[in-house]
Specification:
Structural class: mainly alpha
Distance between the termini: 66 Å
Shape: elongated
Number of helices: 10
CATH superfamily: Phosphatidic acid phosphatase type 2/haloperoxidase
Largest sheet: none
Number of strands: 0
Strand content: under 5%
Order of helices and strands: HHHHHHHHHH
CATH class: Mainly Alpha
Radius of gyration: 19 Å
CATH topology: Vanadium-containing Chloroperoxidase, domain 1
Helix content: over 70%
Length: about 200
């Protein structure tokens, strides 16, 4: 008996019982990541005295996501773990997700990276975004796309990448990049506004 698979079956077995909840989970698992993109844009463009710190964090998150995604891609090539819905016909893949590598959960990994950075600096809305990251991770389990250990793997990989990016020698590297990116984005915004 595989406890990882049994837990997926139990949680996925709840699908189809409460239609509004199924719809919410379906929408969240497909489009929930856009909440983080919109929040990132607000974090970047919102005025305030902590704008440079917020912009540096946006760049760090973006770079962390790229690095973690590359590591995840390599893991998926070295060890291709089939998704739960491909291993057991009792698991309902109601999202129609393709059968690519299951481990680690990239959505959980990305949500965790964002939550870790936001909580580190206690930016406005950081607890809400952390809650959304948790819901996004759960929705991937509910929809039969991931095992619990996939979520754990995504969270662990996020923690390692976040830790490495916040070493003093690495974090200071982002200060000049954030200044340059801020200047460029501010110039572009002024041109769009016609000033």
């Amino acid at each position: 008996m595989n406890p990882d698979m049994e837990l997926v079956k139990k949680i996925n077995g709840l699908a189809g019982k409460v239609r509004p909840f199924d719809l919410a989970m379906d929408l969240f698992t497909r489009y929930g990541h856009w909440a983080f993109v919109i929040y990132g844009l607000l974090l970047w463009f919102a005025p305030g005295s902590d704008r440079e710190k917020r912009r540096r964090s946006c760049l760090i998150i973006f770079t962390e996501v790229i690095v973690a995604s590359l590591i995840s891609f390599i893991i998926g090539k070295v060890w291709f773990r089939k998704r739960p819905f491909t291993r057991d016909p009792a698991i309902w893949n109601f999202t129609g997700h393709k059968a690519n590598a299951s481990f680690p959960s990239n959505h959980t990994m990305h949500g965790s990276l964002i939550a870790m950075e936001l909580l580190r600096y206690r930016f406005k809305g950081s607890w809400l975004m952390t809650l959304l990251a948790g819901i996004l991770a759960f929705s991937r389990l509910f929809s039969g796309m991931h095992y619990p250990t996939d979520l754990l793997g995504g969270f662990t990989l996020a923690g390692m990448v976040h830790f490495l990016f916040h070493r003093p020698s690495v974090i200071h590297f982002f200060n000049p990049i954030a200044l340059i990116a801020s200047f460029i984005s501010d110039v572009l915004v002024m041109k769009v506004r016609g000033r």
